[in-house]
Amino acid sequence: MGLFSKKDKNRSISVLLVDGLSSYNRDVVLQLTLNNENECLTINSKVLKNQPDINLKYNQIVDANIITGEEIIQQSKSVVGRAAVGGLLLGPLGAIVGGMSGTGTKTDTQTQYYVVVNYKNKDWELKVLSFKIVGFSRWNSFIKELRSKINIQQNIEKEIYL
């Protein structure tokens, strides 16, 4: 194994909390880590260092997936900015035409990605954790690895009838 090898390193991603953890506020930056030594998903804050880690055993996790949501953003067009650019390029007539083209709003659509983890709590009630993915972390491979750990646990615990 090389000096810079990541074979034994636990995989983690950065997320924003959406819902499911009462000990944290919404939109706090958290880190999800596949803790292979303890066979659990570890959730900890990257900002609030005094908060204890939250551990969710792989055998408690029912499912984990990525879902997408589209957010429609409306922005006002800048009349002053367009008039100034038009005036610089084409003089007074350009300023008038540029200013007129800046009326109204511009609509843009952004796709947001979320991690949703379904699990059973200590009383075996079904609960949901949801997180918004931030940055360019390798969330797709993170979820694939988490799902493989869940499936391994589920296959071991089931009985086989012939």
Would you kindly provide a written description of the structure presented here, covering whatever features stand out?
- The protein is an alpha+beta fold.
- The chain has 2 domains: 12-70 and 111-155, Pleckstrin-homology domain (PH domain)/Phosphotyrosine-binding domain (PTB) (PH-domain like, Roll); 72-107, no CATH class.
- The chain is 26% helix and 40% strand.
- It has helices at residues 79-101, 139-157; strands spanning 12-19, 29-35, 40-45, 54-57, 61-76, 105-120, 126-133.
- The protein has a 7-stranded antiparallel β-sheet with strand order 4-3-2-1-7-6-5, covered by helices on one side.
- The longest helix is centred in the middle third of the chain and has 23 residues, at 79-101.
Which structural traits does this protein have?
162 residues; PH-domain like; 2 domains; seven-stranded antiparallel sheet
